[in-house]
Amino acid sequence: SEIGVDIVAVERFLHYSEKSDVNLSKLFTSDELEYCFKKKDPSNSLAGKFAAKEAVIKILANQGVSISHSKDIEILNDDNGKPFVNSCPLEKVIDKIKISVSHDGGFAIAIALME
Predict the structure, then answer these.
(1) CA nearest 113: which of 45, 47, 48, 62?
(2) Measured between alpha carbons, how far is 42 from 14 in angstroms, rounded to an integer?
(3) pLDDT digits (tens, 9 = 90+) for 8-20
């Protein structure tokens, strides 16, 4: 198994008030932004998704896959709000990666586990 973890300060995303911001579109897919900006405070969700992407990137790096853009990985949420990897450059591992995201004290932390 492989594990990846990342922590992100929510304040990094506080100044984004529009999902159409060009800087956000470099980091997130349109579906990710749609989800985050439905929330009362999108910065928490943005930080969580970014941390999850970085955690997955660490797993993929251990598989020999180099990721140059976080947008190459898409983290969506199921109907219950549980995050999952929807797409990544190494498609054959998507179903093997599980992720969990938590928020507290102005930080978002994500862990990714590939079985």
Answers:
(1) 62
(2) 8
(3) 999 999 999 898 8
